[in-house]
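Sequence, please.
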């Protein structure tokens, strides 16, 4: 994954990798340790997940996992390059799995065989997995990925309502629940279900609205008031800017916790009031911090 949208998806899926390893791949692991994903292969590439895993029988192995949202015709060659590099660097032949999370029929090949070379990786279509494997989990992150699975026997409306109701049951705290609902919306784009998810979430009043938060409004209004008290345009703009900084900081903390505050350095580097206003509004809709980082990185 290399596009900003794909990075957002990767950020969401990173919390369920271990679950996919045990529940979908079927490996008995007791521990997994992330390994550097930037690979110096001719032109530098970054793998999604490379893990050193300890198996239940005491053995260790290298596991390489990719998430692919489109049919990439040369995926088998990419996997072969990864396999050669990882085997050479780590001295362990990696097990390779690609999870196809796209909406078009799967057309990628999972193997190549020539007179001199043969390679095969494991290709898994998430739409072949029964959504109930994750839908009734007690872990919110697992409930979220059920949106990518097979729900055909349920019907769209019933399926979406079940996901949102499950999150409502598991996450009573409104701010955190809003984050999870936003993540469902992001992933639902891969199934053309975003409109259905957003409508149901709104109807169920599940999404946390920063504009209703008393401290958020106070921060914004304080900036406006300070500007008025100065009585001059410069003072008003400065007051508005400071108020927006405070409001954005509060919004990040409310929605993403301490992790949200880690990007305040990027926020304070913004000297444009309009961009800060846009950022404040984006926080309400963002499914992950990566989405905000992409926005802040734009000129």
């Amino acid at each position: 994954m290399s596009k900003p949208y794909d990075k957002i998806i990767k950020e969401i899926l990173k919390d369920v990798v271990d679950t996919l390893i045990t529940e979908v791949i079927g490996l008995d692991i007791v521990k997994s340790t992330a390994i550097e994903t930037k690979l110096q292969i001719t032109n530098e590439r970054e793998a999604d997940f490379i893990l050193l895993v300890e198996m239940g029988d005491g053995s260790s192995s290298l596991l390489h996992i990719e998430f692919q949202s489109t049919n990439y015709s040369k995926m088998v060659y990419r996997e072969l390059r990864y396999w050669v590099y990882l085997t050479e660097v780590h001295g362990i032949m990696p097990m390779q799995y690609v999870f196809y999370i796209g909406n078009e029929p799967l057309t990628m090949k999972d193997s190549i065989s020539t007179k001199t070379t043969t390679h095969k990786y494991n290709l898994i279509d998430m739409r072949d997995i029964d959504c109930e494997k994750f839908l009734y989990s007690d872990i919110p992150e697992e409930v979220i990925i059920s949106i990518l699975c097979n729900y055909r026997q349920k019907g769209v409306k019933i399926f979406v309502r079940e996901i949102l109701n499950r999150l409502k049951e598991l996450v009573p705290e409104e701010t955190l629940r809003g984050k999870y609902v936003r993540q469902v919306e992001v992933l639902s784009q891969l199934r053309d279900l975003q409109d259905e998810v957003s409508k149901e979430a709104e109807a169920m009043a599940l999404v946390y609205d920063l504009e209703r938060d008393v401290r958020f409004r106070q921060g914004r209004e304080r900036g406006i008031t300070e500007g008025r008290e100065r009585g001059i345009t410069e003072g008003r703009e400065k007051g508005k800017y400071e108020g927006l900084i405070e409001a954005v900081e509060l919004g990040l903390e409310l929605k993403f916790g301490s992790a949200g505050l880690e990007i305040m350095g990027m926020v304070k580097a913004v000297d444009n009031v309009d961009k800060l206003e846009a950022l404040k509004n984006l926080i309400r809709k963002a499914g992950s911090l990566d989405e905000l980082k992409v926005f802040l990185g734009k000129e």
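The CA atoms of residues 165 and 191 lie 19 Å apart.
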